[in-house]
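Weekend entry, working from home. Most of the wet-lab plans are on hold until the incubator is repaired, so I used the time to fold the two sequences that have been sitting in the queue since the last round of cloning. Logging both here for the record. First:
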Amino acid sequence: MTFKDLDLSNQLQYAIDDLGFENPTPIQEQAFSVVRSGKDVVGIAQTGTGKTFAYMLPILRDLKFSKQLHPRVLVLVPTRELVLQVVDEIEKLSKYINVRVLGVYGGANINTQKQAILQGQDIIVATPGRLYDLGLSNALKLKSIQKLVIDEVDVMLDLGFRFQLMNIFEILPERRQNVLFSATMTEDVDVLIDDFFKNPEKISVAVSGTPLDNIEQVSYNIPNFFTKVNLLHHLLSDKETYNKVLIFVGFKRTADYLFKQLEEVFNDEMCVIHSNKTQNYRIRSIKQFDEGKNRILLATDVMARGLDFDNVSHVINFDTPEFPENYMHRIGRTGRAEKVGKTILLSTEKEQESKLLIEALMDYEIPVLELPEEIEISKLLTEDERPKEDHEQSKNRTKVEYVPGAAFHEKSEKNSKTNQGGSYRREIAKKYKKPKTRGDKNYNKHNKKK
């Protein structure tokens, strides 16, 4: 099947031709007529299968030209980076159509966004938090929304956007079409569908956990963090093979620490993104990596979820993710649009259990490669890797560990005095021999005791 069989408008077909696409992916093929029908839709497909085009093609096909100021289509995505990416995709598709698109997200000036909304928009792409702020401040009128698309909904719920989503549903018109896309079907997603969707049509292309056939996976068993760093140095020094590499880590702290270890050798070739980095830094890092100015991008799971990069040669999992689904999303960054991709998984002894869970989900055993001989096995250990007795001496020692001894010096004489109470006052009185009749100086003067 080709795009020409999909009943696209001429303008959309010209845009698709310009992009060089000929055949729709399975999700695009199946979703087209269902989304156009106006029913509620739930699409389950892995990352890298072209979900953005799957919902935008049918929506743009039926979106008539209008001069109205209020938006008619709302697309919700979990991260700011995805907002920019989806806006970019829509602009590519609407090259020959007169459609106004705006992306709004936190971390940018809200007043500029309000002004842009007032100019009039057809499609708003937003993160839930910022959209709710704009809806409450009345800058964005949501009463004319006809279609609501929630993309990467499983990530949204993972990030704790559940309440914002509920609030957004409250302020949207009841009569609308809901389109939801997710890479995994979790219980939370199920509850959301039951509560807010009316007899949705379900499209499932690939069960989460089936790796894409065009991704070649290998793994290394490595004793510790610094040996992993040594292996990375070895692999990344081959610039021809590893020409566009995405390195995943589980935590922001690990990302920064690893960046420090690699910075000296690959400083100009690498960048890092995680949620503690500023918005401008993140946008710049992604752009430089996408354009090929930087060869290596270091990212945390949530940050790179759903991001689409062309021609990623390798995805390196620096640590083994605890949740098998995260591994699926990581490796989905390569081998996109049916190209061949390669992934490498680095696992320590501690991480073997997580690796087994990943293999069970995929029903596939990842081949293990021998470490190259020139890799030095590091004896250095990180804080987390050291034996417990080395670093678990509590700073707030318990009574059992800490038995106080005697004071380290004798008390000085003045500090040795004890409170004598009433008798002490009597001693003072004796010493200074207070007059019996107080204040009568003349009497005292004449009647001195001899």
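Second, folded right after the first finished:
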Amino acid sequence: MKEEGGEVLYRCGTLTYTRLGLLNLFIWLLWGDFCFSMMETVSPSLTPLLLKMHNASNLTIGILMGSIPALLNFIINPIVSTRSDRTRSRWGRRIPYLLFTPPFTALFLILLGWSDQIGAFFYNLLWGDGGSPATFTICLIAFFVICYQGFDLFVGSVFYYIFADVVPQQFIGRFMSLFRIAGTLGGMCFNLLVMPYAKTHMSVIFTVVALIYVLSFTGMCLNVKEGEYPPPPPVKPGLKAMVAGYFRDCFSVPFFSILFVGLAFNYVSTVCRNMFNLLFALNDLGLTTAQFGRVGAVGGIVGVALYLPMGYLVDRFHPLRIYLAGALLVIFVNPFGFFFVHGYGTFMAMGILLAVVYTVQNSSLLPLCVKLYPKEQFGQFCSAAAMVKALLLVAANAAGGWFIDLFGYRWLYVWDFLFTIPCFVLLLWIYFRWKKLGGDEGYQPPLRP
């Protein structure tokens, strides 16, 4: 922070902001995230329901909604992330990837919403009336999901990196709290205003949300400016040398390898809840989609209330400590859900408890990465973490679907409990190692020699 001519200026790299400029930056990034989060809520929430309407198994849902997207993430994320780190253009190094792929994401999201009608039309065209297009429609849904996920990964791989490039470091914790609030509000609006119509107006929901997303995200990209970057470090010629250098940079230091695995286990812990919580509420508890939406909306209100104070706590006590506290709370809360959730009231109570503990954890995740990863290779190290996460999720999503087929939807609480424990243990090791590397005052990323 610096004063020039009586005006307070904030700096991030070569970028300089007045208070008004910083406010403008926050507004556009938060608006983009609000619409991005609403769009990202649609497919995970409604596609399992769409598949169940065609009698798809939970294993099939796990593979289509989790394993295949995770495999795509494993392939696409490191390429896009590393390429983004090295991109130099008049738009910056992140904006080109955020600006040009959302139209394709929106297109396939719309097609996914109309897959029932498209599937019936082509089935009747090819095989005539009288049969059941269920299998053909499931294959069509799978194709649209894969295309949607593939294009969405370009944005998902890069969007979070831009914060480290344009937001002044002293505001990163508070910005991330506002960012989480915006995302929570997007999900809350979807749950409260849209979810009640999930079964009756599914095609319209997919279409409207996709159009809102592409228009708002384009506006954000045109109004957020990146600064100047130093030239990227030279790389050895040849694909083999580039890949070897990538893996040496990211995986030769145990500190980062263990951190990647610990964070990945946290994502593994939530796969069953992400895919089957709606089906648990509808099929086991007898809730309506409107009641489920209200539970999500109340959880969103709790998150909104907590994210801003959590931002101050993250800045004050360091995100690693807050993340560990969140993981410990997740472990303690899940047994309550398994034993005591039997109706709307207890499901609501559990939704509020989960909103609290995941707000604690989510408010610290990206600040943790910003604090611990090397700044000049931030995208590269994020992509390495995403690769580890994707490898585990390829197996975990299919295994989660099989697990639920075997034991039932209630056991999603057991899954979360079991896989959060290794996350906590590994991150606890990271915490003690971080202390030895300088901790709050002197930490420097332990790069390879």
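Plan for Monday: verify the second prediction. The chain has a mean pLDDT of 85.
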